[in-house]
Every structure is written in structure tokens, then in C-alpha cells.
Amino acid sequence: MSEAKTNAMRMLDREKIPYNVHTYDNSDGKIDGPSVAAKIGQDPKRVWKTLVTKGSSGGYFVFVLPVELDLDLKKAAKAVGEKSVSMIRVDEINKVTGYIRGGCSPVGMKKLYPTVFDRRVEDLPTVVVSGGRIGTQIEVEPDALLKAVKAVTADITAG
After folding, report:
1. How far is residue 25's CA from residue 156's CA, in Å, rounded to a whole number?
2. pLDDT tens per residue across span 116-132
3. How far apart are CA 55 and CA 64, in angstroms?
4. Which long-range contacts (CB under 8 A, 24 or more apart) does 143-149 make?
5. 89: which residues sit within 8 A by CB, 6+ positions away?
6. Using one digit for the tens of pLDDT, what is the confidence trace for 23-75?
């Protein structure tokens, strides 16, 4: 593969975790989850987004969920033992994670923040998350991915 590896890929390589890379053309500017799922020919239920929040205590928390679902902030706060959590501003994403909006991976952030995947991940053979840059997704077995980022699972989606 001629494309440069991302931090996410390097971390998975270091942990000897196998993954498949899916790339897509983002020249149309469509980088939302459902568009990405369609571009890489994957079921949107298997393509997941990474959201970063700040808790009322001041700490950062990472939540990973299917692209078509919304994060329930109350459930998310409960999952990490916070009174409340709120989404960080777009201009904070790079400072906190090392990634940019649309290319934020749960793997290979600047720091290993407490990470929670929606419990639906337990029912999937593989899950697709950002590879750490716009245009690149990585497909990984959920157990290996959860172990790599020391994540837990919980019910964190709205509805």
C-alpha cells in the first residue's frame, strides 16, 4: 500500500491487530457517516463515528457509535460516572485528539482517554471506524479494537 500509515494504523500494527483499510474519495465534501458508509460499500450499522466530550469534572471522554445514531448525553455521562458531558467544540478536536473533524479515530489519539463503545458493537463481526484521516476508514474485529483502546461498552445512544 503506497499511502502513508496514520497513527491509528501504526498503533494497530504495534499491537499486532489485523485490520482492513477502506479509502474513499472526499472531493465532493461529503464526509458525514452515512455518505462514507455508502462510498465504501458498507452497511451504516457497521460504520461508526467517534465523538469527543468533556465531562463536568473537566476530563475528556470518547464515545464511539453507529453513524446513523445520536449520542445520548445523559446515558454517556452515566457510562463514565460524570454528572454531565458535553460535546467539545470543533476547534478543540485537533488540540485534544491530534485529529481533525471527519478524521477522528478512537485509535491513536494524543492521549488514551476513557472510551465507551455503544453496546451494539458486541453483535458485529467487524466494525469500521475512521483510520485517522478524511478518506480512510479501518475495519477491525470489535474485541481487538476495544482491547487496543481499553474501551468498555454501554448503552449510549438516543432512542
Report:
1. 30
2. 999 999 999 999 999 99
3. 16
4. 144/15, 144/17, 144/18, 145/17, 145/106, 145/107, 145/117, 146/117, 146/121, 147/15, 148/11, 148/12, 148/15, 148/17, 148/107, 149/62, 149/106, 149/107, 149/112, 149/115
5. none
6. 999 999 999 999 999 999 999 999 999 999 999 999 999 999 999 999 999 99
